[in-house]
Amino acid sequence: MVVEEKRIECKNINWILRCPTKYDAMELSKLRVKIDGETENLDRESGEGLLTPEDFEELIYEDSIDEKHMFLVAEVEGKIVGFTRCEGSKLSRFRHKAEFGICISKEYWGYGIGKVMIENILMWADTAGIKKISLSVVQTNKKAIHLYKKYGFVEEGVLINDRIHKDGNYYNTVMMGRILDK
Q1: Which intervals hold domain N-acetyltransferase (predicted)?
Q2: Cα 129 vs. chain centroid, distance in angstroms?
Q3: Is the Cβ–Cβ distance between 73 and 29 less than 8 Å?
């Protein structure tokens, strides 16, 4: 699904929320590796589960034609600084559901970009017939958990010792979901 570009001003920055095009594929591939190396909050370490520019081109195309998929990027001064994807299921029993993920370059944390991205994903989902959005978040990422709860997500379960970080310690993963009652 493709939506109209939005210009946003918040917390002293102007940025654009838009769907990516195939011309963004190279930048998205590099940005994903960069962001993965900036935080332990994501599932991958830098360079793991690499998505090539060709992989991103395919994702961008598939997401643009599938009414149950949404891919958005945040662009500041011509540079993509974050992105979010919501991917619906093609399986009949799960066609009412979608999986959601978001990542923002660390230098742009605290500017409200994640909040705006979540709001736009949820507005789209509510009109696209998606009744449930699921996500997972490391239990130590309290800011993200608080933000998700603010938007109606609830904790559905915890996967114990689900991940191991560079410090050698195990961490739990919180499974969260938002159900549209309509």
Answers
A1: 26-181
A2: 19
A3: no
Distance, in Å, from the CA atom of 80 to the CA atom of 136, rounded to the nearest integer, reads: 24
Q: Is residue 120 part of a domain?
A: yes
CB neighbours of residue 97 within 10 Å:
18
Three-state DSSP at 125 gives helix
Total number of domains constituting the chain:
1
Express each pLDDT in 2-58 by its tens digit: 778 899 998 889 999 999 999 999 999 999 999 988 888 888 877 777 899 999 999
Cα 7 from Cα 5, distance rounded (Å):
7
Determine, yes or no, domain membership for 13. yes
Q: Which token pair is 64?
A: 């643009």
Q: Indicate which CATH number applies to the domain containing 119.
A: 3.40.630.30
